Amino acid sequence: MVYIVIPVFNRWAYTQACLHSLSAQTYQGFTVVVIDHGSTDGTSDRIAQEFPEVILLKGDDSMWWTAATNAGIRYVLKRSDAKFILTLNNDTIAEPDFLFHLMESTAHAPENSLIGSSAIDAESKEYIYRGERLKWAKESTLFLNEITESRPDNGLLKVSHFPGRGLLIPLEVFQTIGLFDEKHFPHYMADYDFTLRAAKKGFGIFCSWDAKLGIYPEASGANQLKRRKTLGGYIQHLFGIKGGGNLPLFYQYALRHCPIWALPSHLVLGSVRRLLGYWI
């Protein structure tokens, strides 16, 4: 059984569309777990009315993505029929054969591999993201959707890490490395940290070419923050919990994962990009 864990905080229209897309899946061996951590727009009541099959857990507004996701994972780990956890954001739209292809991918990957989804624009259906590979010394990544034009024979692209948006995780991974790190990465970078920790323990990380998940690129808090171009927005960008350029998080992440030989250039280039990137 696949348990799909979705943290939500307001934005009912996104949640409703996401749950409708899951209801239309051709693969039906799954259960949805939604963690509502403090919504004030009636999300919980609406889920109960429109999607009674969804397991609804309640949190509070002190939780962010990581703590809310972990709450759902803790629930699933107690279920005897659970084999996989799929972490999913509420601002996503699953193509009808999304879960079918994602589960089919497990047969072509090494046992207990983590498998991510190919992101497409929810409106144009164009590919946006097929995973990436880290280039530590340059503090950059090689985006596979920009260099890979043909489908691999097994439908899988080997990646170095992956976001939690549409990530299929075998329970064995949690039993080996623990949950997402909500203490050090309460919102952003918890997914990258988690997948890098998994890779260090020998778990494979892949992106499924065929499992397509629609996303809204402009819906993320970091992108909305960068559009404001104000001094207050800049400070939030560098230090706020939803800031895409959060310097303290970047330093924690780099010190934990960057190879020592690449650390000096990684820290310098990463700091410059975050300090200037908001304005450029």
Layout of SSEs?
Layout: E1 2-8, H1 12-23, E2 30-36, H2 43-50, E3 55-58, H3 65-77, E4 84-87, E5 92-94, H4 98-105, E6 114-121, E7 127-129, E8 132-135, E9 140-143, H5 144-147, E10 156-158, E11 167-170, H6 171-177, H7 190-200, E12 205-215, H8 221-228, H9 231-239, H10 247-257, H11 263-277
Parallel strand pairs: 1-2, 1-4, 2-3, 6-12
Antiparallel strand pairs: 4-11, 5-12, 6-7, 6-11, 8-9, 10-12
| CATH-defined topology of the largest domain | Spore Coat Polysaccharide Biosynthesis Protein SpsA, Chain A
Bin the strand percentage.
15-25%
Question: Distance between the terminal alpha carbons, to the nearest Å?
Answer: 46 Å
Shape: globular
Total helices: the number is: 11
Question: Please, what is the average pLDDT?
Answer: 92
Radius of gyration: 18 Å
What would you say this structure looks like, in words?
The protein is of the alpha/beta class and 280 residues long. It contains eleven helices and twelve strands. It has two domains: 2-218, Spore Coat Polysaccharide Biosynthesis Protein SpsA, Chain A (Alpha-Beta Complex), CATH 3.90.550.60; 222-277, no CATH class. The chain has helices at 12-23, 43-50, 65-77, 98-105, 144-147, 171-177, 190-200, 221-228, 231-239, 247-257, 263-277; strands at residues 2-8, 30-36, 55-58, 84-87, 92-94, 114-121, 127-129, 132-135, 140-143, 156-158, 167-170, 205-215. α1 (12-23) links the parallel β1 and β2.
